Each structure stands twice: as C-alpha cells, then as structure tokens.
Amino acid sequence: MIHPTPTKILLATTLQPLVRQLSGSLAQGARLIEHFLHHEPTPQHMATFERELSALLRDVGRRIVAWVLNHVEPERPEEAPSRLWWKGQAYRRRRQHRTSLATLFGPVIVWRRLYEPLAPGLHAIHPLELNLGLEAGVATPALAERLGRWAAEHTQCQVLEMLTHDHGVHWSCTTLRKLLGSLSAGMATPGQSERGDGSASPRRPSRSGGALAASGTGIERPVSTNPRRRA
C-alpha cells in the first residue's frame, strides 16, 4: 500500500517554492482582514472587502494552477521520453515551448514539450495538451466548458466581455472561434450547429481520440511524468 506524503513534509519540500510565492498573498489577505475589522461595519466596507478578497483568491488560484501545470512534465529533457507513439505514429522529443493558457483563475504562462512526427505530413504534438485536455491549446477543460455554455446563450462579443470581466482573460474573436470550433469538432452531432446570431449550441470539451505511449512499451497509455522533479 502506498501512503501519501504528509502535508507538512510536502509544504517543506516539494511545494516549498510555491509556498514562498503565496506568502505575499497570505500577508495581503491578513491586511484585508485587519482593515475590515478595524473600521465601522457598513455595506460599502463589506462590498469592498468582498471584491478585494475575491480578486486576491483568484490570483492565488492562478498562481497555483500555473505552478502545477509547469510541473507536470520533467524540466530536464533527458527525463522525458525520447520517443512517443500517438495514434500509431512515432514522435521524437524536441524542446519546450512557451504559451499562454486561459484558466478559470485567469491567464497563465505554461512551458510544454513538443514532439515532432517521424513520418512526413503530420503535425507536431504537445503531450501536455493531450493528456490534460487543454482545448485548442488555449484553455483548460473547465474554462472551455463554461465558454461553451456561454456561447449557447450569448453572442461572441458578449462572451468575450464576460470572459474578460469574470476571468481576466483578454481574447480576440479569432481565438474564441478557434476554441468554439474545437468544441464543435469534438462533440458535434447531427442537428447541432452554430446559430446565425453568432452564438453556438452547447458543447463540452472534446476528449483526445488516442493514447500516448512511451516508445518500446508496446502499450498505448498516457505518459507518466513526475511533477516533483522541479524546484
């Protein structure tokens, strides 16, 4: 039986860099609490406290998600598989690439490793995107699902405004259409199509149609990487 690492040990070892990042946010939260408790309780003060706390917690969530996503894959190239199989095709490891990813907590910068096909005429893949279901390479599954629901009831311009207001993500119409197109391609059924007013019927994030396997295993399965290897 495998026992999980105690929380105290995790906080002092693997997660210590993240804890240091969040220490400033914890101090800011303490100041918000102190300021609120030392002033006369009024609806205005309560509204201000709640808005500022909401923004702070969203920033904490954004930092945590960014840290986790950047620790899914090994940092050192030699720790990642040199070859992968995807849908019956072989891919070779290449360098990491930087991208901006939209999440429920806001945009985050993520480094993901590229794998190049050995056969001509195929597109390169990013296993991180395939394994985690990052929709169209621009959004996490949870945010993509939310945007799909919004698009079913609002125009694209309204969705973009809601995305900026609720999640701090600034997208162009092109990026939104790319996401909605990916959702439609993944979950399209007869009778479902985009409406004339610019909104789309409900979609859920698509799931990848294949499995990734490290070369030589003979078994196609998601690549297993150790998220605890980077400080």
Concise structural overview:
This protein is α+β, with helices and mostly antiparallel strands and 231 residues long.
How would you explain this protein's 3D organization?
The protein has 231 residues and is α+β, with helices and mostly antiparallel strands. Among the domains are: 63 residues; 74 residues. 44% of the residues lie in helices and 15% in strands. It is built from 7 helices and 4 strands. Helix 2 packs antiparallel against helix 3. The longest helix is centred in the N-terminal third of the chain and has 27 residues. 22% of the residues are buried.
Essential attributes:
single chain, 231 residues, alpha+beta, four-stranded antiparallel beta sheet, 7 helices, 4 strands, disordered C terminus
